[in-house]
Design a protein that fits this description.
The protein contains 17 helices and 15 strands. It is of the alpha+beta class. The chain starts with a helix and ends with a helix.
């Protein structure tokens, strides 16, 4: 079989050269479009369940919310581990599934299990977190406010938080590939109603009456429809409050035919929620937006799309409000890490070519042997893409380790061919009958066939050394398996290239 491949290559040399050129051209263009990342995705498929229990202490959240949810989720099919955190007013449960599980199937399993959970009254229904991975947080964006004429901020922290949530966050979520945007810092606006106990007592009202009136103060109720002359008109009661004045005008009771409003017994105002944390950018108060990507999104392309979107948003924001992107950017780390590995690949290839020329002493033989490097690397990257692997420091590291081994097969073959060709040329320079001369193709075929079996078994032995990497379990396997796959794919490709 190997001899047949060699004979075919010698007979169709133009076809082999054309195939090599097309592999370098289109393979290189395809490799340039592959997604880049720092490390392979080492996180098992995980579904995050968030439950808000306002007013409950951590112990109560653990007993009344977290424990019932864990009990429901522990027996779900495919679940590998369940972890949880209970804090004041909130419960977070992480449900980890086995490696290789489809993330959308896991979310369906969790959703079905949560339907049977029995939680106390007043606890919000459990919500599933966004689809993301352990490497999902790709950038932090800071919104700052500063007046050009003074040190005071141009807009209030409350207005800055509103801009971050209603303008910037909603625009970012419209970008394909972004799973979640979490704002941190600033003042969250709320309406505060401070009751006057004396005024309530004078009118025979209680705090419960005030709460009940406020809970229904901002509703738009339907009242059926009205038919007039063949036309149907919807009848609605527009009662949605649009500000503090509307809330203050809410009717609590009638006193001698005169309405008693909320404003008569309480003070209504806009105020920030009590802060339990804050955010800053370069020692200045700011609102930080944490941007998380979906698992299959290209971090570099997504970061460039975010930059273009923010550049357009910056022109529409109020004067003095600026968007700062020079914070944590995973794209910058990826570019630096990939550049370092590519530099190692480049330097290794150059050193290999220099050593080849010094030992072979022939430029043509050196060029033929060195061609195995780019052809094997491109073929190895194509094999990686077939197995669903992108380019990262582990896969490129495997290719960098294989640089020296990629030319082994070609060197042995070329050197074994180069020597008989030179000897045949010396014999032909002597006065020999024309019929005893052998063609160059015959010499190449015989010389290559002599060492082909040894080269094949040597390559297979090296491949066997890396096979244990493919059987590593857990996170170690997820991290090192791409390295072994890249090395083996490039090495097998170098064997085919040498043939």
């Amino acid at each position: 079989m190997l001899n047949a491949v060699i004979r075919f290559s010698l007979r169709h040399r133009s076809l082999v050269l054309l195939a090599a050129g097309l592999l370098l051209l289109f393979g290189g263009l395809y490799a340039a479009r592959l997604p880049l990342d720092v490390f392979p995705d080492v996180s098992a498929p995980t579904v995050t369940v968030v439950t808000e229990a306002t007013g409950l202490a951590p112990e109560e959240v653990e007993i009344l919310v977290t424990f019932p949810l864990e009990s429901m989720l522990n027996g779900a099919p495919g679940v590998r581990r369940v972890r949880s955190v209970s804090a004041a007013g909130i419960s977070v449960v992480w449900v980890e599934f086995g490696w290789g599980e489809d993330v959308y199937r896991t979310r369906q399993v969790v959703s079905e299990r949560l339907q049977g959970a029995q939680l106390p009254a007043g606890v919000d229904p459990p919500q599933l977190g966004p689809v993301s991975s352990v490497m999902g947080e790709i950038t932090f964006i800071a919104l700052t406010s500063s007046s050009p004429t003074s040190k005071a901020p141009a807009v209030s922290p409350m207005e800055l938080r509103r801009l971050a949530e209603t303008v910037v966050r909603r625009s970012l979520l419209s970008v394909p590939g972004i799973s979640q945007v979490v704002p941190i810092g600033g003042d969250v606006r709320q309406y505060e109603v401070e009751a006057d106990p004396l005024a309530l007592a004078q009118r025979g009202l209680t705090v419960d009456d005030l709460v009940e009136a406020l809970s229904g103060a901002s509703r738009a109720s339907a009242a059926g429809f009205h038919v007039d002359r063949g036309q149907e008109y919807l009848v609605r009661g527009l009662g949605r409050a649009r500000g503090t004045a509307d809330l203050a005008a809410t009717v609590l009771d009638l006193e001698n035919g005169v309405p008693v409003t909320v404003g008569d017994v309480a003070a209504v105002r806009e105020a920030p929620e009590p802060q339990r944390g804050t955010a800053s950018y370069k020692t200045r108060p700011a609102v930080i937006l944490s941007v998380q990507k979906q698992p299959d999104a290209n971090t570099l392309d997504l970061t460039r799309e975010i930059d273009r979107l923010l550049a357009g948003l910056a022109r529409s924001l109020p004067e003095g409000v600026s968007i700062e992107t020079e914070n944590f950017r995973q794209a910058d780390f990826i570019e630096v890490a990939i550049a370092n590995v590519l530099a190692a690949l480049r330097d290794g290839a150059i050193l290999v070519v220099i050593v080849l020329f010094l030992f072979l002493g022939n430029f043509r033989a050196t060029l033929i042997s060195a061609l195995a490097i780019p052809l094997s690397l491109v073929a190895g990257i194509l094999v990686l893409s077939l197995f669903g692997q992108g380019l990262n420091t582990m896969t490129l590291g495997g290719l960098a380790i294989a640089i020296g081994a990629l030319v082994d097969d070609a060197i042995i073959d070329v050197e074994n061919v180069f020597r008989p060709l030179r000897q045949e040329k010396l014999r032909q320079e002597k006065a020999k009958p024309q019929g005893e001369r052998r063609s160059a193709l015959e010499v190449v075929f015989e010389a290559s066939s002599e060492v082909r079996g040894a080269i094949l078994f040597a390559t297979l032995i090296i491949v066997l050394v890396f096979l244990p990497l493919f059987f590593l379990p857990g996170m170690e396997g997820r991290l090192l398996r791409p390295l072994g796959l890249a090395y083996v794919a490039a090495l097998v490709a170098s064997l085919l290239v040498s043939l």
